[in-house]
Amino acid sequence: MPAAFAQSVPKMISGAVKDDRNDVIPRATVRLLTAGDSVLVKGEVTNADGKFQLSSLANGTYILAITAIGQKRFTSVPLTIDDAHTTIMLPAFVLMPAKNIDLKEVVVSAKKPLIVQEIDKTVVNVDAMLSSATSNTLEVLEKTPGVTIASNGEISLNGRSGVTVLIDGRSTYMSAQDLTAYLKSLPGGILDKLELMDNPPAKYDAAGNAIINIRLKKNRVGGLTGNVSMGYSQGKYGRSNDAVNLNYKYKKINLFTNLGYTQEKTYNLDNYDRRFYSPTAELISTVDLKNNLLNRSHGQSINLGLDYAASANTTIGFIVNINGGSGKSNFDYTSKNYDAKHQVDSIGAGKTTGNTSRTNVGTNLNFLHKFSNSGRELSADINYLTYRSETNQSLQNFVYQPNGALSNRTDFLYAIPSLINIYTAKADYVHPFKNKARLDAGFKSSIVDNDYIAQYYDVVNTVSFIDNAKSNHFKYHENINAAYVNSQKEWKRFGLQLGLRVENTQARGQQLGNEAVGQSNFTKNYTGVFPSAFLSYKLDTLNKNTFSLMAVRRINRPNYQLLNPFVFFKDQYSYTSGNPFVNPQYQSRYELKFQHKQLLNMGLSYNKFTNVIFQTTQAVDNIFITKPENIANGYMTILSTSLSISPRKWWFVNYTVRFLHMNLEGQVYTENLNFSTNVVRFEANNYFTINKNWNAEFSGYYASRDLNGQTVTSGMYQLRAAVQKKIWNNKGSIRLSVDDLFHSWIYHNRSVGLKQAEYFQTSKSDTQRIGFAFTYRFGKDTFARKRRHNNNASEEETGRL
Question: What SUPFAM superfamilies does the record point to (predicted)?
Answer without folding.
Answer: Carboxypeptidase regulatory domain-like, Porins
